Amino acid sequence: xxxxxxxxxxxxxxxxxxxxxxxxxxxxxxxxxxxxxxxxxxxxxxxxxxxxxxxxxxxxxxxxxxxxxxxxxxxxxxxxxxxxxxxxxxxxxxxxxxxxxxxxxxxxxxxxxxxxxxxxxxxxxxxxxxxxxxxxxxxxxxxxxxxxxxxxxxxxxxxxxxxxxxxxxxxxxxxxxxxxxxxxxxxxxxxxxxxxxxxxxxxxxxxxxxx
Amino acid sequence: xxxxxxxxxxxxxxxxxxxxxxxxxxxxxxxxxxxxxxxxxxxxxxxxxxxxxxxxxxxxxxxxxxxxxxxxxxxxxxxxxxxxxxxxxxxxxxxxxxxxxxxxxxxxxxxxxxxxxxxxxxxxxxxxxxxxxxxxxxxxxxxxxxxxxxxxxxxxxxxxxxxxxxxxxxxxxxxxxxxxxxxxxxxxxxxxxxxxxxxxxxxxxxxxxxx
DNA sequence: GAGTCCTGCAAACGCTTGTTTGAAACTTAC
DNA sequence: GTAAGTTTCAAACAAGCGTTTGCAGGACTC
Lengths: 211, 211
Description:
Two copies of one chain form a homodimer.
Chain A: H1 2-21, H2 28-35, H3 40-45, H4 49-78, H5 84-99, H6 104-118, H7 122-141, H8 143-146, H9 152-171, H10 173-184, H11 190-206
Helix pairs in contact in A: 1-2, 1-4, 1-6, 4-5, 4-7, 5-11, 6-9, 9-11
The structure holds a DNA duplex.
């Protein structure tokens, strides 16, 4: 009991702090301080800071990947050929179903995903590739029939363009929202942003098939 | 003479190393070691590590912003209304004109731009906003007539979606290219990627006017 | 040629980092 | 109630960080 509580509290604090400041910029002392546990607890329960970073990702991604897979299979039973919009919808719907619609945990974690790409944590990228590479490939494989006429190279690049759009937006979500509030005077609802984002991605992806 | 050489060598080394590892992960000892100058030289010539980071951006962005402005004005004289494609073309053309077509300095710097967004360097974002905010707004102002029917909110979000696509792709350029080479077996030319990228961005941006 | 200014250098400063240690506190089982 | 096994804790560790210091060497003026 006491152990699980400590582990969970460390993960909670680490998830939030990593998302706010990045991995290298967040010290174990800051994390354990926020979690209200002893400094040595991280190395005792996780082994190292690197292992803690990976554990944060596993706790979030394992259920999400499973849910995406589930919804993908479900959808495939009712529809012979999935559209690009279907596939994007599965992603957002899976996040909504697990965390609720207005969850800031989801947007905070998206920032973590962005950091995983841009910060120099070679061990993390290797780890994520090994653990989730197959699931990612499986998801992308559904995109191919949805975009007839696209070559393999088209598919690869357009997928990563779309991925980049999403990750960048999510990882700078709060900053962008603040800027937009400054510009237009009103706060944009999350729904609006997400639907615009998926529309932008879909438009870009469809472009692959037309050239 | 000797001074300029030292300053320039520090900037060269810092630009490459920051792009490779990030700001916090690159120590002044690494930079001065690679540059072949004394450790104290950074604080002597720049004042602090933060000031060095800003100087790296200024050296790259000042000429680029000026060139974009120049090409924008030139284009406006021959054409009454600029298209989205025109505006994107001005950006890539400016980079090409300054650094040549196959420059890795340009792609490396794009990675720096991405880091500026995602790494926790509040001073950098503040600095970039103060120094280049006006030029950015001026550029975006040309986008409004190019996308009739788009509201102010549309314009803001779609601009940043496109920005995100570009920054993410550029900042992970080498990694993406290596992955694609692994997948398809052949190395994708830079031209191909850039033209696909701008096409993707244009398709997404046009989508703003149609909803 | 003395004086002034700029630059380069080795060494040290104080501080923070991730990790380890060894003993104390607690839980569990017989 | 004692023994074994977990978990917590304060303290210390070595290493790395950005920055500062004081001096040595060169370049320049007058």
